[in-house]
Amino acid sequence: MTTRKQLTLHLDDTTARALDHEAKLRGLTLSRAANDALKRVLIHDRADAIADTIKARLDRLDQRDLARGRELILIKEALLQFVRLWLTYAGPLESEEEDSDIDGRFEAYLDALAEGVTG
What we know:
Elements: H1 13-26, H2 30-89, H3 102-118
C-alpha cells in the first residue's frame, strides 16, 4: 500500500493555470497532475543528471583507454625495433659457431630479457 502525504501548496497564477491545463489535457485530478509534475522534476530529471554524469565519466575513461592503447603501440614498436637491432648487431652466440642463426639469437634475447625482469 502506498502512503501519501497531504500538502497545501500556494501557487502563483501562472503556475496554477499551467497545472490546471496539464490536468485537463491528461484527464487527471489537480493533485495527480501536481504529483506527476513534481515527480518528473525532482526524480526523473535528477536521474537524467546522474546518467549524464556517469556518461561523462565513462567518456573520460574511454579517452584514457585510447591514450594507453596508443602508448602500448609505441612501446611495442620501440621494443620490436630494439630486438631487430640487437639481433642484427649482437656478436656471435657463445654456444654456436655461426652468426647467422637468428632463432638462436632471439632465444638468447628472450633469456636475457627474462633475467632482466626477474633479476
